[in-house]
C-alpha cells in the first residue's frame, strides 16, 4: 500500500538515488554525472527552511519524490514543485496519481492554496498532469538566458 511521508535533507541519499534513476533516462536524459552539482541541487530543493519535500513509499521502498518550496503569494500560499517523479518501472500503475492526491491533501492541511509546476509539452508528464486536473497557465511564458 502506498504512503506519503514528508522528507528532509536527512533523506538526501535516497532522494538522489531516485532523482538520478528517473531523470537520466528517456525522455529527460539529464546529465547528472557531476556529483557535486547534484548534491548542491538537492540541497537547494530539500535543504532550505522553506523547502517542502515528500516521498511516496510502497511499504519500505521509496518509489517517488516531490521536491519544491513554499511560496507566499498574493493569491495565497503555494507549493511550487520543482521536481516530481515516480520510479520508471512504477509509472503507469496509479502511483503518481495517488502521490499527487496525497500531496494535495497534505498541503491543504498546511493551509496552502495551490500547486504550481512546470513541465515540457513533449513528455509523458504533460498528459499526466492534465489527466490529474492541472491546467495550463497560458498567460505565463518561461524565459531563460544563457550567459
* CATH class group: Alpha Beta
Helix content: 25-40%
What's the CATH superfamily, by name?
A: Gcn5-related N-acetyltransferase (GNAT)
Overall residue-averaged pLDDT value: 97
Quick take:
This protein has 147 residues and is α+β, with helices and mostly antiparallel strands.
Structural write-up:
- With 147 residues, the protein is α+β, with helices and mostly antiparallel strands.
- It has one domain (2-131): 3-Layer(aba) Sandwich (Aminopeptidase), CATH 3.40.630.
- 32% of the residues lie in helices and 29% in strands.
- Strands 1-2-3-4-5 form a five-stranded mixed sheet, with helices on both faces.
- β4, α3 and β5 (114-117) form a beta-alpha-beta unit.
- It starts with a strand and ends in a 16-residue tail after the last helix.
Write the layout of secondary structure elements.
Layout: E1 2-7, H1 12-23, H2 35-46, E2 51-58, E3 61-73, E4 76-86, H3 95-109, E5 114-117, H4 124-131
Parallel strand pairs: 4-5
Antiparallel strand pairs: 1-2, 2-3, 3-4
Amino acid at each position: 500500500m502506498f504512503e506519503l511521508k514528508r522528507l528532509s535533507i536527512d533523506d538526501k541519499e535516497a532522494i538522489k538515488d531516485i532523482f538520478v534513476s528517473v531523470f537520466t533516462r528517456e525522455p529527460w536524459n539529464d546529465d547528472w554525472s557531476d556529483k557535486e552539482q547534484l548534491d548542491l541541487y538537492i540541497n537547494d530543493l530539500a535543504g532550505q527552511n522553506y523547502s517542502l519535500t515528500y516521498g511516496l513509499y510502497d511499504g519500505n521502498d521509496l518509489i517517488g519524490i516531490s521536491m519544491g518550496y513554499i511560496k507566499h503569494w498574493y493569491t495565497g500560499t503555494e507549493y511550487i514543485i520543482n521536481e516530481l517523479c515516480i520510479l520508471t518501472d512504477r509509472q503507469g500503475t496509479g502511483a503518481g496519481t495517488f502521490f499527487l492526491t496525497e500531496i494535495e491533501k497534505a498541503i491543504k492541511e498546511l493551509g496552502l492554496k495551490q500547486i504550481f509546476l512546470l513541465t515540457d509539452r513533449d513528455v509523458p508528464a504533460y498528459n499526466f498532469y492534465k489527466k490529474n486536473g492541472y491546467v495550463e497557465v497560458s498567460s505565463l511564458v518561461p524565459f531563460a538566458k544563457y550567459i
